[in-house]
Design brief:
Length: 367
């Protein structure tokens, strides 16, 4: 890694890809690059991005949820192959297979399977939820429901394919998982993640929304809420759940996100007992595969697709991305942790450049 070239790449991406970003790279337990670029007010350029800027982590929230799940499993309070219905009795019964609403193209539907058989929701396990093989739709417009109607809307949802036959990344699956964890842990989701993950790892800057707007990087102008989103969760469904959900809702700094990655690397190296090493190893092994999509437990695994952010890294790498423009990747072979937080969605949801940026970023880092 040439720090000068990496900095130049970050700087040239400001305004082209995102208004603001913070990158922290750790190798062998040491911070080797820590840089903030851009402005939180790109039109006036009065407020510089800093290393303390809070970014909407979007789906990186799932990694904190995953870590909490595994700690409960390690404590003997949950089993991977335990049916979800044993914790959430409402999540059972026969369900039809139907197309679901396309989140990126309003008015259109996404068809995953044309199977006509009904699906028994009672057979869905926690492993299915963590590997995105449950059969649940990727997305439904929960935020259009009254808040008290969201839970039954999700728990009684139709399925989009027979359980275990496909890998379809599902926010609904993680939402269900979060509700189950609240029952198992006997506490609200935010408190559970705080006590099981954030406090033990010392990740003080990770918190659920809302957060002070002056400390947060703004995301896009929300057509539905009719305002610029800053300090409140960007994800509409997480907003519908009062900003606290297992799939999205957390804000944080790049240093704290890298801290989660460092914790996982230390566990896998046998240097930490935060999780049993064997359980962490199982989480980053291949559990489900659908074409080039390869999933562990909660984690996305190395992909053979050149356009995947994991592709430049070693084949044992794993990580996750967030819709707002965030990412965390861990390369155990190189003892490398890469946390890059941006607010790329500030520019809207069309013609996005965050995908190519991530690939190039990882290429620059491993040069």
């Amino acid at each position: 890694m040439t720090k000068k070239k990496l900095s130049a790449f970050l700087q040239e991406s400001v305004g082209q890809v995102f208004p603001a970003a913070v990158l922290q790279v750790r190798q062998q337990g040491q911070v080797v690059h820590d840089e903030a670029v851009g402005w939180l007010d790109p039109e006036t350029r009065q407020q510089l991005t800093t290393r303390e800027t809070l970014f909407d982590l979007a789906s990186l929230t799932k990694l904190f949820t995953t870590t909490a799940v595994l700690r409960l499993i390690a404590a003997g309070k949950l089993e991977l192959d335990q049916p979800v219905v044993t914790i959430l009795p409402e999540f059972g019964g026969q369900r039809p297979i139907q197309p679901y609403e396309d989140p990126l193209h309003p008015g259109q539907l996404v068809t995953v399977s044309t199977a006509t058989d009904r699906v028994d929701a009672s057979k869905v396990t926690f492993r299915h939820l963590l590997t995105h093989t449950s059969g649940l739709p990727a997305w439904r417009p929960l935020y259009r429901q009254a808040r008290e109607a969201i839970r039954p809307f999700v728990l009684h949802s139709f399925f989009s394919y027979p359980t275990g036959t496909r890998v379809v990344y599902s926010d609904l699956g993680l939402i269900v998982l979060g509700w189950a964890l609240e029952v198992v842990a006997e506490r609200p989701l935010a408190s559970m993640i705080q006590s099981l993950v954030l406090d033990p790892l010392g990740l003080a800057t990770i918190q659920f929304s809302p957060v002070p707007p002056q400390r947060a990087a703004p995301t896009e102008f929300c057509q539905w809420r009719q305002r610029q989103i800053r300090g409140e969760v960007h994800d509409e469904n997480a907003w519908g759940l009062a900003g606290v959900a297992a799939h999205a809702g957390l804000f944080g700094t790049a240093a704290a996100v890298a801290g989660l990655g460092e914790a996982w690397l230390a566990i896998l190296q046998g240097h930490s007992d935060f999780l049993p090493r064997a359980l962490a190893q199982e989480a980053v092994q291949l559990h489900a595969e659908d074409g080039p999509v390869r999933r562990g437990l909660g984690w996305a695994l190395w992909s053979p697709l050149p356009e995947s952010p994991s592709h430049p890294l070693s084949r044992g790498s794993f990580g996750h991305t967030g819709f707002t423009g965030t990412s965390l990747y861990i390369d155990p072979e190189r003892e490398l942790v890469i946390a890059c937080l941006t607010n790329e969605v500030y520019n809207g949801r069309a013609d996005r450049g965050i995908g190519p940026f991530r690939v190039r970023l990882h290429e620059e880092i491993i040069r």
